[in-house]
Specification:
The chain is mostly helical and about 80 residues long. It has three helices and no strands. The chain is about 65% helix and about 0% strand. The protein starts with 5 loop residues before the first helix and ends with a helix.
Length: about 80
Amino acid sequence: MLTESDTLAADLDFAANAWPEFADSRSTLSIRLIELGAETLRNQVEERKAQRLKAVEQIAGSMNGVWLAGWLEEMRSEWPE
């Protein structure tokens, strides 16, 4: 059960206009809005993930030559056993 705040009531009224076939059921409208919101959120998360992956792919290999050959072994040789 949801408590209808003024904002939620306005959103449900808006949804009832968008989906007149569900206008007589605030519960169904609530479910539809939640499902739409979840789908929108999933899409946004996937889009951000794709953007981050694209950024990583764009800079991949851009640091070649920054570290001298053998740098890792040299660093490790300085660590205590």
